[in-house]
Design goal:
By secondary structure, the protein is an alpha+beta fold. Helices cover about 25% and strands about 30% of the residues. The N and C termini lie far apart (about 100 Å).
């Protein structure tokens, strides 16, 4: 009798130790790998495992809908959930849910939305898809919404079309649509990098962004550029000198050094001048350029900014107004 009790006690202890190992960080990764495989993304230096990998590849175009992983899976201590950040999304593990629903998308659109400048209402267009949230989805945004998973993927719209940072956008519960007319036809609707933005906004340990592979880290590749430009003076006279400040970051909002900047300045009368910025971006991803201007009339001066780094190139625009 005592022998049986001793055996039972050892079995219980062994089971508890096994559970402890399984649900520790490393053990949980191993468990995930067994349940759904694993893949290493060299572009950002992170693994995606198990149910998270299954969720990733369940999308028709995971790279455009989620982007690359920017962190490993980790325990969010505020929610006590395992999560993993991607450029455009965050995955959450809900082990209490049915198997097909255990990995869910965080509502990053709802978390991140701040009202912008509302643009013309398109609700009368026959292309609009109507919702009970008082906001509709129209034209190219409606096409992209329907073709890429609709409400199950993006949730419902929580804004109309708005102008933010000189770009036409619309927010959904899980995403932000962006209109990019500088892209080829059929690819002019992109998803904003809400995963990256939310990671920085919450203030997680940035060490999570470090690339991983076994016991050592590798340098992450620059996959795309994010460029922002600001004039020193938003309103000027018809003549003077203007300075444009430029900031360039990568897909993880890390500054990119050595980016070549070109400015195309278009005056109200349609004339255009090109300027190659002599100083490439510094270690903070910043540079600036000053140029003289003399206008025949008041109006808006448009500045198109092109950033080039190796084989990557992206553009943004800014402007200032000559008022007197």
């Amino acid at each position: 009798m005592n022998y049986n009790r001793g055996v039972s006690r050892r079995i219980v202890i062994s089971v508890l130790l096994l559970l402890l190992i399984t649900f520790s960080s490393g053990g949980w990764h191993a468990s995930l790998a067994q349940s759904g495989g694993e893949k290493y993304f060299e572009e950002t230096g992170h693994w995606v495992r198990g149910e998270f990998l299954t969720k990733y590849y369940s999308a028709s175009d995971p790279l455009s809908l989620y982007g690359y992983p920017i962190t490993p899976a980790f325990l969010d201590k505020t929610t006590n959930q395992f999560v993993q950040y991607f450029q455009k999304a965050r995955f959450e593990l809900h082990p209490e849910a049915p198997p097909s629903q255990q990995v869910q998308l965080s509502s990053l659109g709802s978390y991140s939305y701040e009202p912008g400048l509302t643009v013309t209402n398109f609700d009368t267009s026959p292309t609009c898809r109507k919702f009970d949230t008082q906001f509709n989805v129209c034209m190219a945004f409606a096409d992209y919404y329907i073709q890429n998973g609709a409400e199950a993927q993006f949730g419902k719209p929580i804004s109309g079309m708005e102008l933010q940072n000189n770009r036409l956008v619309q927010y959904f519960e899980n995403a932000r649509f962006e209109w990019r007319p500088d892209f080829p036809p059929g690819k002019m609707v992109l998803l904003g990098d809400l995963g990256t933005e939310h990671f920085y906004k919450v203030g997680y340990d940035r060490a999570l962004l470090l690339a991983e592979r076994g016991d050592f880290t590798i340098e992450k590749s620059v996959l795309n550029l994010k460029v922002r430009a600001y004039p020193r003076e938003a309103v000027t006279s018809r003549s003077g000198t203007q300075t444009i400040y430029i900031v360039v970051q990568d897909q993880s909002l890390v500054p990119v050094e050595g980016v070549q900047i070109t400015l195309a300045v278009t005056t109200p009368d349609g004339k255009q001048n090109l300027y190659i910025v002599r100083q490439r971006t510094n270690a903070a991803g910043m540079t600036q350029s000053s140029f003289p201007f003399a206008l025949d009339s008041v109006g808006v001066v448009q500045v198109s900014v092109t950033a080039t780094y190796k084989d990557l190139q992206t553009k943004t625009t800014t402007s200032f107004r000559a008022w007197w």
